[in-house]
Amino acid sequence: AASSSHMLICALVGAILWNLLTWYVGLPSSSSHALVGGLCGAAIAAAHGDLSAVVWARAPAAGKHWWDGGGILYKVVVPMVVSPVLGLVIAFVVMGGLYFVLRNWRPLTVARVFGKLQLFSSAYMGFSHGTNDAQKTMGLIALALVAATKAGAFDQLPDWLSFLRTQEGADPKDQRIALWIKVLCAVTMAIGTAAGGWRIIKTLGHKLVRLQPVHGFAAETAGATVLFTTAEMGMPVSTTHVITTSVMGVGAAKGLNALKWSIVERILWAWLLTLPATAGVGYALTRLMQVAGWIL
User: Fold this and answer.
1) How many domains in the chain?
2) 18: closest CA among 45, 41, 39, 38?
3) CA 259, 37, 154 angle in degrees (round to 5)?
4) Is this structure's pTM higher than 0.90?
5) Which of 79, 10, 24, 7 is nearest to 270 (CA)?
6) Contact, 212 vs 111, CB < 8 A?
7) Residue 296 lies in a domain
8) Following DSSP, what letter does each residue of 54-91 receive, concatenated?
């Protein structure tokens, strides 16, 4: 359990460093994939280089959908390819449909109407975002609390901190998540989105493609629909990948020249490097802890 806590710390540090780097350069990158990469690297290091410490692929049972499979292949790699394609295609179709319906509208009327409608599409996007990313953060906090409880780290806590003690569920699928964890994740994600997203907003809304309210409405509606549908299906996808390619789909509907292809290339490189970069940091930090004697 103590080793698990140290692994989580190493994985988190790797993911946080990568997120800060991509935020600094204004590139949208998947926090989920960064965390998975950090966990994989930390797990391999904790197992002294044994690659079997990570579940790379576990085929779905007979009669199940492909997204019911397990391991890195089915939970990370395949969704990493499928979700961006879904976001791009659906946004392209939605934007194309809006161009057809609104072809005789005055630009000022379009801007005024969709400036209001975008409030609803933004709320829809925020809700769908919560159904995906907040769940992962909640699970990570619960896992850390379970590991600390099993290690006895909370045995001497005063009564007013007893809420930190978290017992492991009989089945991981039935693990109880305390209400305070849910509230903490919701508030923290909202604050982080409001305070730290401007560099990435500039990339998506100005550098990648010039967005007007109608374009934002189409991208948010398409992205949120993909996220909400896949969440209901239990299919893990990257919120960042979906909304980014939704913006690309909207830009493609305007015309391929509307997209800044140099920005697209930088974004794709950031996505491809996320897993190996964070895995390397997680591995290195865990090895340092082993050398220091903090974990075996």
Assistant:
1) 1
2) 38
3) 130
4) no
5) 24
6) yes
7) no
8) S---BPPPTTS-GGG-BHHIIIIIHHHHHHHHHHHHHH
